[in-house]
Amino acid sequence: MSRTRTRSLAVAASLASATLLLSACGGSGFDDAPAAGGTGSGSAGTGQLQVLIGSSGQAETAAVTEAVSAWSQESGTQATVTAASDLAQELSQGFAAQTPPDVFYVSADLFNSYAASGALEPYGDQLSNADDFYPVLKEAFTRDGQLYCAPKDFSTLALVINTDLWAQAGLTDADVPTTWDQLRTVAQRLTANGVTGLSTSAEYSRLGAFMAEAGGGLVTDGEATADSQQNVEALQYVQSLMADGSYAFAADLGAGWGGEAFGTGKAAMTIEGNWLVGAMASDYPDVQYRVVELPAGPAGKGTLTFTNCWGIAADSQNKEAAVALVEDLTSSDQQLAFARGFGVMPSLQSAAQPFSQEFPAQAAFLAGADYATAVPNAEGVSDVITDLNSQLEGLEGGDPQAVLQRTQTNLEAALQSSGS
């Protein structure tokens, strides 16, 4: 391995170590996670595969382990699944030691950093189902015209409504909001008796949906557009809801995230992804709710999409087997099995209809795939978004224009540095 590539992998390791969350819903710790330095393939040349995942919980770990085990028995290739206690750190150890796992989760926000360092094998176009992935998901993992890795599943944001509180406020199906004005009206109606009408986390991965609905976004055609008038309008709209008391950040309600504020009855509505379904079933099974598409803004419908891919290490000695495993894991039948197991949405367009038939309550999440905007994933942008999130925490009394101008400056520097 050349010194240049070694240095590049070290950079990728540092970036991974600095990023604690690689998926929208985060990871969980497990007792069987490898010790420091224990994520390396160790199976080089033996035909074995090591698979490292950042699991959202025991259900996901069990489902992936079962799927990999079934493929292993059928293919004759031994494969072992490990749920990382800290996926970023454990990947960084593997990259630094040049012994990464063969197959692993890669988040969209770190994809370009890994790809630029040479850590990823660009295998995506080898898959027979490559043309079946949603275009917005393929775009998230394409670099220099190559699809590097297969989107494993995805999520979008939608509006989640507590149906009991909705009925108590005298609201009906006819009141389900389809515009910003209507959202304001129902949020005000639902704000009563210590309950806030709408609550989300204070972060771009929620408020960015309002930007999309206003026709804005952080990056457009490779150019920084954070300080656009559309984005200012979006944040000012959120501020106006806060001013009348019908919108509050989850932290201001004593909750860790929008799902907790919603599940504990502190908020009547929230904006979350379909990972909320599993959280509600596990933590708040008695709360009755429905999911609808986000109301359209001045520019029409908008939402954000989040995804991870199945990365294959460039240093893997078992790439052919790794590609075969990923092909199996991303098949329509297997993705639908994962949907049953831990609530994700299939990344294949051909799986949309069977998913909708089996999970009609999640139809609004799936509908968002047609107009969703991906979170920017150029190198360095994740750091810019982290800074933006810290500013958004003070949005209620802040200056949206100033927040966005600072983000614009940071984005321009990041995009210039990355060569985007």
Features:
14 strands, D-Maltodextrin-Binding Protein, domain 2, 17 helices, 10-stranded mixed sheet, disordered N terminus, 2 domains, globular, 420 residues, alpha/beta
Helix content: 40-55%
Strand content: 15-25%
In CATH terms, what is the architecture of the largest domain?
3-Layer(aba) Sandwich
**Outline type:** globular
- Based on secondary structure, the structural category is alpha/beta
Mean pLDDT: 89
How many domains, as an integer?
2
Q: How many helices? A: 17
CATH topology assignment of the largest domain: D-Maltodextrin-Binding Protein, domain 2
The count of β-strands is: 14
What does this structure look like?
It is globular, with a radius of gyration of 21 Å. Helix 1 packs antiparallel against helix 3, helix 2 (58-75) runs antiparallel to helix 13 and helix 8 (204-213) packs across helix 9 (229-243). The protein has 2 domains: 3-155 and 305-374, 3-Layer(aba) Sandwich (D-Maltodextrin-Binding Protein, domain 2), CATH 3.40.190.10; 157-304 and 378-418, Periplasmic binding protein-like II (D-Maltodextrin-Binding Protein, domain 2, 3-Layer(aba) Sandwich). Strands 1, 2, 3, 6, 7, 10, 11, 12, 13 and 14 form a 10-stranded mixed sheet that branches. Strands 4-5 form a two-stranded antiparallel sheet. Helix content is 43%, strand content 16%. With 420 residues, the protein is an alpha/beta fold.
